[in-house]
Design goal:
By secondary structure, the protein is of the alpha+beta class. The chain has a domain of 200 residues: Transposase Inhibitor Protein From Tn5, Chain A, domain 1 (Alpha-Beta Complex), CATH 3.90.350. The protein is built from 12 helices and 9 strands. Strands 1, 2, 3, 4, 5, 6, 7, 8 and 9 form a 9-stranded mixed sheet that branches. α10 packs across α11.
C-alpha cells in the first residue's frame, strides 16, 4: 500500500488535535492562534488576531482546561511515524539529534512567571534547551525544557532528560548522532549517551582548555582525527576542529566524536550542529516563538508548543509542494495558511476589508461580494 501524501496526513493530524478541544469555541480559537502564528511574520501577538479577541486567546492559553499533554502526545506520535517512514533496508540511516540552549529575550518584570524568566549568560528571558531532529528532508523540533538557573538541573542534565523522551524504537532503525556545543561536552553527558541506556554517538563541541590524560590541552593538538583520552573519561574520543567567522575574524572551535571518524568527517558533522541556530532564528522571527505574553506558566508552555507546531506545518507544506530549492519560510507559512486554514484566512481578509470600508466609501467606491456560480 502506498503511503498517504504528506498533506493528507497533516490534515488528519489537525483534525485529531481539534477533536481534543472540549468545545467548538475552543476548536475555533486553536485554529485562530495557529493561523495567527502562520501569518504573523514574527510579530504574532493576540491583539493582531482578526478572528478571535485578545481576551479569548488569553483564556484559551491560560485558563481553559483542554488537554495539553494529549496534544503533545498526538503530535509526537505523528512525528514518530514520519521519522519511521524514512527507514530503509540495509545500512541504518543517520538520525541527527541536535541539542542547544536558546534565550527568548524579555524586558520588564514577570512576577507571575516565578523563576521562568531570569538572567543567564548576560541575557534576560526564558532559557530553553531544545531537541531538534534532522533526517533526510525532515526538520523537527521534538521537545524542550526550561532552564531555571542555579541549583536546578543544568542544560546538559536537561538535555539527557530530553534524550530519554526519544522512543527506543528509533535506535533499532537509525544510527543516532547527538550533536551539541561545548555546554554538552561534559564527562557525565558523554558517558550517559554512550551507556546502554542510550547507545548513541556524540559529536560535541569542547573547550580548547580541556585537558587530556597526558596533561596536554586540547589546543595543543595538531592532527585532525587523532584518538585521545580526556581527563576523567575512560573511553577514547576523536578530535578535530572547525573554523568559524566571529566579528570578522577566523576562530578555531574544537569538536570531539565518540565514534572513530576521519578528521574531515568530524569537522563536517561538527558544522551540522549549526542547523539548530537556523531553526531558532526562523522560529523567533517567522513563528513568534519569543512573543509569548501570557500571565501563567501554562500559557507560556502552550504558546511555545503551538509556535513549534506552526513551524512544522509550514515545513511539511514545503515538502508537500516538492520544491527543494532554497526554503522561503514566509512563503511556506502563507502556503500552509492557504491549504490548511483557508477559512481563517478568508475571515481575516473580510475583517480587514470591513475596517477599510469607511475609507473605500469616501473614495466613491463600494465593495460587494458576489457568489460565483459553480
Amino acid at each position: 500500500m502506498l503511503p498517504k501524501p504528506i498533506l493528507s496526513q497533516v490534515e488528519e493530524l489537525l483534525s485529531t488535535l481539534k477533536d481534543l478541544m472540549p468545545t467548538i469555541y475552543q476548536k475555533e480559537t486553536l485554529e485562530s492562534i495557529i493561523g495567527l502564528l502562520l501569518d504573523g511574520q514574527g510579530n504574532a501577538v493576540p491583539h493582531h488576531c482578526q478572528t478571535k479577541s485578545e481576551s479569548a486567546i488569553s483564556r484559551f492559553l491560560n485558563h481553559y482546561n483542554w488537554p495539553t499533554r494529549s496534544l503533545i502526545r498526538t503530535i509526537r506520535s505523528f512525528i514518530l511515524n514520519l521519522i519511521l517512514s524514512q527507514r530503509k533496508k540495509g545500512r541504518k540511516p543517520i538520525l541527527q539529534v541536535i541539542i542547544d540552549l536558546t534565550t527568548l529575550e524579555k524586558v520588564g518584570k514577570f512576577p507571575h512567571l516565578k523563576d521562568l524568566v531570569r538572567v543567564y549568560n548576560h541575557k534576560k528571558g526564558l532559557h530553553i534547551v531544545v531537541v531538534y531532529l534532522v533526517v533526510g528532508n525532515w526538520r523537527i523540533p521534538y521537545s524542550f525544557r526550561v532552564y531555571r538557573g542555579k541549583d536546578t538541573p543544568s542544560p546538559s542534565q536537561l538535555a539527557l532528560k530530553l534524550l530519554n523522551t526519544l522512543p527506543s524504537i528509533l535506535t533499532k532503525f537509525f544510527q543516532i548522532y547527538v550533536l551539541g556545543d561545548t555546554a554538552f561536552g561534559t564527562i557525565n553527558f558523554i558517558e550517559k549517551i554512550r551507556s546502554k541506556d542510550f547507545n548513541h554517538h556524540g559529536i560535541l563541541g569542547i573547550s580548547n582548555r580541556r585537558k587530556l590524560t597526558d596533561g596536554r590541552k586540547v589546543s595543543e593538538l595538531k592532527t585532525r582525527g587523532q584518538q585521545v583520552y580526556l581527563q576523567g573519561l575512560n573511553v577514547p574520543v576523536f578530535v578535530s576542529w572547525v573554523w568559524l567567522k566571529r566579528n570578522g575574524k577566523r576562530v578555531k572551535r574544537f569538536v570531539i566524536s565518540t565514534k572513530p571518524m576521519k578528521g574531515t568527517t568530524i569537522t563536517r558533522w561538527g558544522k551540522y550542529r549549526w542547523q539548530i541556530e537556523g531553526f531558532f532564528k526562523t522560529a523567533k522571527h517567522q513563528f513568534s516563538l519569543h512573543r509569548f505574553g501570557q500571565k501563567t506558566s501554562l500559557g507560556v508552555y502552550r504558546w511555545l508548543i503551538l509556535s513549534f507546531l506552526s513551524y512544522m506545518l509550514a515545513h511539511w507544506v514545503y515538502l508537500h509542494n516538492g520544491n527543494f530549492d532554497d526554503l522561503d519560510w514566509y512563503d511556506s507559512a502563507q502556503q500552509a495558511l492557504i491549504l490548511l486554514f483557508p477559512h481563517i484566512l478568508l475571515l481575516s481578509l473580510l475583517r480587514r476589508l470591513q475596517l477599510l470600508n469607511p475609507w473605500i466609501y469616501k473614495q466613491g467606491l463600494e465593495l460587494c461580494l458576489v457568489r460565483c456560480k459553480m
